[in-house]
Design a protein that fits this description.
Helix content is 80%, strand content 0%.
Length: 109
């Protein structure tokens, strides 16, 4: 069960990272509207990708998975704060949707 949820969470967050790297319109337009500088976008993608690798490594070294999960929860908490500061309340659910499976992984560890 832990393996399945970890892989699902990694795929979901990985999709988010790839979306940033590819500058998908539905990702970068809100980032710009929230006031996130375009120079940060690649680094945000790198942070998510590193979290994905950490979650997958956690299948073999649980401490790495826990550290990656905590990092991703902090990342998405920052995303929620950014959305709230931009007063884009209807978008708060999006970072929460990516955070939820990561929290599930952490609960299972």
């Amino acid at each position: 069960m832990t393996t399945t949820i970890t892989i699902a969470a990694a795929l979901w967050v990985g999709f988010s990272a790839v979306s940033v790297f590819m500058r998908a319109k539905w990702v970068v337009e809100p980032l710009a509207a929230y006031g996130v500088p375009a120079t940060w976008w690649p680094w945000l993608g790198v942070a998510k990708a590193a979290g994905v690798l950490g979650l997958l490594a956690g299948l073999f070294v649980p401490a790495v998975g826990v550290a990656a999960g905590i990092g991703l929860v902090l990342y998405f908490t920052g995303a929620v704060i950014t959305v709230l500061r931009a007063r884009s309340y209807s978008h708060v659910m999006f970072p929460l949707m990516y955070m939820a499976p990561v929290v599930g992984v952490l609960v299972l560890y």
